[in-house]
Amino acid sequence: MPRSLDFTKWQPEIDVRVEALLAQMTLEEKVGQMCQIFLDTPDRAKAEEWIRRGQAGSVLAFYGAAEINRLQRIAVEESRLGIPLIIGNDVIHGYRTIFPIPLAESCTWDPSLLEESARIAAEEASADGTDWTFAPMVDICRDPRWGRIAEGAGEDPFLGAAMARARVRGFQAGGLASGRKLVACPKHYVAYGAAEAGKDYNTVDISERTLRDVYLPPFQAALDEGAGTIMSAFPEIAGVPASANPLTLDTILRQELGFPGMVVSDWNSVGELVPHGVAADLKQAARQSVLAGVDMDMVSGAYHRHLTDLVQSGEVPLPVVDAAVRRVLRLKLMLGLFEQPYTDETLGAKTILKPEYRAKALEVAQKSMVLLRNEGGLLPLGPDLRRIALIGPLADDHHEMLGCWHRIGRDEDTESVLDGLQVVLPPATVLTHVRGCDLKGEEPPDLEGAVRAAQAADVAILVLGEGEAMSGEAHSRAYLGLPGHQQALLEAVHATGTPVVVLLMGGRPLAIPWMAAHVPAILQAWHGGIRAGRAVADLLVGAANPSGKLTATWPRTEGQIPIYYAHKNTGRPVYREGNSPFDDPNRSVYIDESSAPLYPFGFGLSYTAFAYHQLQVETPEVGLGGILVASVMLTNTGDRAGDEIVQLYVRDRVGSVTRPVKELKGFQRVFLEPGEKRQVCFEVPVRDLGFHGLASKNAGPAYVVEPGEFDIMVGNSSRDGDLQNVLLRVK
User: Catalytic site residue 139?
Assistant: First the structure.
């Protein structure tokens, strides 16, 4: 795979060109470069006039090489200085070849595979005129009510950092067939996933330690990988909105992380400083954001309307504007837009939906799906089954499986579950399809038809879950059960006594305790993209072996939320550890529900079985600057080849501040044939065992690695019963 591009490495010759351009620009032209405009507006002619006057730096949500070239010609051939536009689009999990949603992709635990899917998206998008993707979304989320959990890699900062690095490498791959470049934009900086009550755009109020230890690492990883831009978030963080926050945008991003690239606001997040209540009007909002460090205003109009006046009045120093414009111009030069502003309009048709891209989408979909339950080995379906009932609102759907933010993805490109089964099942199999009910409960259900189909079948396959508009931005949910009449449909079919398999589609963990207790086989298929139907079919018949593992904890009920594996122990832990002199029944538990999740982080079943033996730490004592070396023997004890995702967790037994009960510090995806065994080794720098400790008198918490005892745990999920444990001493 071609080396990825690093947009954070400055080049002296580019700096010379930037200064030459800057010296020629009027103040109005400088401000224009700091504005991103949206053309889908009634006053489109006015927006295009801004481009003609050199007063627009970027256009977003604009697709198609021919139209993009038309805009670029206005910018390059009609504006005074001929500075090209940056075309930014939401290329989240594919351009036209739609892959599974990012949360699903993360369940592959395979960064190299995510790098490939992001590179394919870059190939297609760049061939069609896009220069800039507003991705990857690297927000950590520990509340599945938040709809945007679908767009990220789940709840863990270590895994999230690995996936962030991979996606940046893929999006910014060198050697694209278009001859162009694409720049990534990690978002939403920062802690957007901690919105209170899982409600989108809501308040975030966390400690600086949590900000740095949990929410910041994936952003730092993305920037370390060379991401050239970053997007400031919507919500406030401890009272200061993220798009006007000097701590996050200047102190941390610029000074500590040394990020030299461009900061763009999220959609109207500059304008939203007014309803946040920290700015009286749009003029104050513009001043606060630009002084905090937002280089480009996405669509609010605050910079367009007020930044020139603010500079002329002295309220915003001209050097602040010049610094922002330098970053915009530098990015355009690094993208090669001055040399190649136009896109070959024939290239898109030759690039999108290549057979090898569709094949990769199938592989990612197969590896992302998680087998949650398989009592009695109901799956894979045996060849002796002659009659199958395929039931549910998503069974023959070609749209919902595309998931949120599929943008230009098309229904006609997708394969439904019915399509997939018709391909893989033997010709003699009778496959009966009954919808049973609609997705949201807006129509009367056909329970009788579903029951009749199930009664006449050897097995009933129900395809249930969420639609694409039930997760993603502005789609938070208070109730995480099956929508509409789907639960009633499930219970009616189950009551027939016919064995039931549920295929769950959706963009988040769901609360499905009844299903988990009564249905023998459950496969979480997510919103799996254009090849989801075939991927499901291959898994159902055993042509592929499930290997995905959850990257977000599944609650039993909404009342457990937020729920995540790396919680703190508290002074009264859920499970007694033998170190309390009191037999106190008052523990940190619920009186009406288990404290355990329905399915833990890292969980996922296979059609084969794996055994862990001989966990050992090769370095039982190691210095603060050393490397932890641990190994375990893994054996495939089943009769099928399969992939196991081996996970290493660490617990710091005693710290200067309270520490999580365990933290992921390593993982490996291992393929084994039946009976094969392999020693799986991990090397973890001791520095990675640190955290942000007590704050000093005049500064925030500093990163420290403290000596002491650490539990090293290796197994197939974060659940205690799935882990083996050895002791490490750091001295």
Answer: no
